[in-house]
Amino acid sequence: MRKADVPTFCRENGVPAITERLVKYATIDGRLAAHRIGVANWYSEADVLDWIKSMRRVGTGGDAA
C-alpha cells in the first residue's frame, strides 16, 4: 500500500491516530520499513502491523502512585 493508504489501514485495524505525517517520519527514522518502487514508498501490511505493535506501551493503571 502507498503512504496515503496506511492511515486508513490502521483505522480499519483499530488504530485511529496514525497520520500520513507520522508514517513519513517513521519511514525516515527507520522505524517503519518501506519498499521504494519508482518514485513512491510502498508498505506491506505485515510491516505496518509490526510497526503498530512496536509502539505498544503497557500501563500500570491509575493507581501507580
Radius of gyration: 14 Å
Quote the average pLDDT.
92
Question: Low-confidence parts lasting 5 or more residues at pLDDT below 50?
Answer: none
Structural class: mainly alpha
Q: Span from first to last CA?
A: 43 Å
The spatial strand order of the largest sheet comes to 1-2
**How many beta-strand runs?**
2
Outline the fold blueprint.
Layout: H1 6-12, H2 20-29, E1 35-37, E2 40-42, H3 45-54
Antiparallel strand pairs: 1-2
Q: What's this, in brief?
A:
Helices cover 42% and strands 9% of the residues.
Can you characterise this structure?
15% of the residues are buried. The chain has 65 residues and is mainly α. The protein has helices at 6-12, 20-29, 45-54, and strands spanning 35-37, 40-42. It is 42% helix and 9% strand. The protein is built from three helices and two strands. Strands 1-2 form a two-stranded antiparallel ribbon.
Descriptive keywords:
65 residues; mainly alpha; two-stranded antiparallel ribbon; 3 helices; 2 strands; 42% helix; elongated
